[in-house]
């Protein structure tokens, strides 16, 4: 045996954090060498195998239970996913530890994407807070709850760059900008991992999907990705590099074919770049069966060749794919692959197990008591409510309809998502109890006194039938019944809160859509209600940017609320009643039309960027729609107003390698305290390759009391001014730059400077 066989309660005090003894890397390396010296080739390959549990599948083709149980007992499974609870993880762990020759514990993993039971906003929404403390705190709660349920490893944060809202997984990421995405990734990794992986309230994080999955052609799920070297290095890879530098414990590759090489078989990405150039010493897990699926891609003639390609490329662990266990041993014996490749993968896997403390106590994370005490606690729910309200983006607020005035007597809460306790939990909801969110209707009722009447009508359905992760949704596009009743309710209200948008299962994995518009019944419901009551605030809930030009034109107010998690209704009420002044900013452009996809602010100029006054058609445009976003990246309003003055650079020119200091005064010239996200962009006017018309290179979220002025300062160095040029080499080139500062990516002050 490698460790003392402590029971989980002895090893884990009933509540709180145990002081874990952090084992040094040198000690780990020594222990790994000793252990691997005892292992057979089959046992080493066994560590590279990850099986899904039985109750819940997040992919196709899983094998039967007995098959897996026998492998686990033989010590031929290094990890499991989709097994949760202290009890169940303990049972499977005992199968491995008590029956196998060496008793090596397994790692238990799960997709804890935006919470385990206490749900935070979906990641795209949470990123709209532009508050990295919020992201870190949310991940820390998720880690504590997941660890309390026996888990060691989460397959998060997803950090795929994305530009196409047709792709369902935009809900899972951090939007269209590499700088914001990088900051968000690091914040979430720090939240999940804390400063001690062996602590019983942290879990190993996973940078996924490495790389380029979000560029699926036409936004179609699992579709081919063609990404130039230039875009790959300047747009797609920066969040992953930041994650590796931040010490993320694991990476996950992906399903996508990248420029003809599926990433699971990409030696360039996994070995040359990640493990060699970036020095990553953790493990890379495949995505679900993505090794075996190399056959489907047509780059491997069978699973044996798939296994050979993947291990040579640097995929260390085979998730629910069976390719490694069936083939690696034979490939070594036939001399097709060097056993050293197996040794390296096995070493990386064992290293994580030592870092997690699993050899000291394989049951340290399975505490029934912590499972009861650390989950859905008031503290966790308070963090979820804070994250939710900070993620809300005020898109429009004419006549200062919001916040709701104190003299309001009747509030009508209407729409398919008005009384919905399920959709706010979002997709990728881990073990959230269904229908456990605070609905908008409940949140409003919680917030008002008895002298305010709250009325309700559903109006129309957004979907019909079952709403599950694995079932096709029936999105309602034809049933308009219920509008008349809703209009009657709206007529008699001082203000209408109209909850429309997308069901949470319209986005997420396997949820790409060609039509990302508001459904016709919901648009008709809005039109009918706005006609009888101008005091209507649209409360939009959605997992992706939506083209809402009719709402933008005709609604009095629009509040973007994503899918905000467990405390959704309370957080929205906090904003609507002015308890919290909305401060969110869009992490992804909202289009005027779905046909604009892919749409992103950090675009290139093209050789014909400007309109020549409409005289000719020979410039980059559409004949039937504007080029610009309906609501741009970085956009969001407040109940107060902010003014920018005195943009200053400490020098108008500087040498490469020097630091430029940029400062600006931000004034809250309204009547309410509020937060502003001050954003700094650059434009490199000329380069050895074409450069984006704008690039976010700094942001700071500041609280300004009514009437207060603050000076916000940014520093620009090579790290911000350089880019990956020809041959993907990082360069800083002299030339002319513009600096932009403001509260979104369009309304900006600007200044020039020269880099010599
Ligand atoms: C899924 C997803 C991946 C997830 C994994 C395990 O197909 O692509 O993000 O972590 O399988 O559920």
Briefly summarize what is shown.
The protein is of the alpha/beta class and about 750 residues long. It is about 30% helix and about 15% strand.
CATH topology of the largest domain: TIM Barrel
**Taking strands numbered 1, 2, ... along the chain, how are they ordered across the largest sheet?**
11-18-17-16-12-13
Alpha plus pi helix count: 23
Mean pLDDT over the full residue set: 95
The CATH C-level class name of the largest domain:
Alpha Beta
Number of structural units classed as domains: 3
Helix- and strand-based class?
alpha/beta
The CATH architecture of the largest domain would be Alpha-Beta Barrel
Radius of gyration: 26 Å
Largest sheet: 6 strands, mixed
> CATH homologous superfamily name of the largest domain?
Glycoside hydrolase, family 3, N-terminal domain
Number of strands: 28
Measured distance between first and last alpha carbons: 64 Å
Say what oligomer this is.
single chain
Tell me the strand percentage band. 15-25%
List low-confidence stretches. Answer: 1-20
What does this structure look like?
The protein is an alpha/beta fold and 756 residues long. The protein folds into 3 domains: 25-371, TIM Barrel, CATH 3.20.20; 378-596, 3-Layer(aba) Sandwich (Rossmann fold); 642-755, Sandwich (Immunoglobulin-like). Helix content is 30%, strand content 17%. It has 23 helices and 28 strands. Strands 11-18-17-16-12-13 form a 6-stranded mixed β-sheet, sandwiched between helices. The protein has a 5-stranded parallel β-sheet with strand order 4-3-2-1-10. A 5-stranded mixed β-sheet has the order 20-28-27-22-23. The longest helix is centred in the N-terminal third of the chain and has 17 residues, at 132-148. It is globular, with a radius of gyration of 26 Å. The relative contact order is 0.11. Mean pLDDT is 95; it is low at 1-20. It binds alpha-D-glucopyranose. Residues 58-59, 81, 111, 155, 208, 287-288, 509 line the site of alpha-D-glucopyranose.
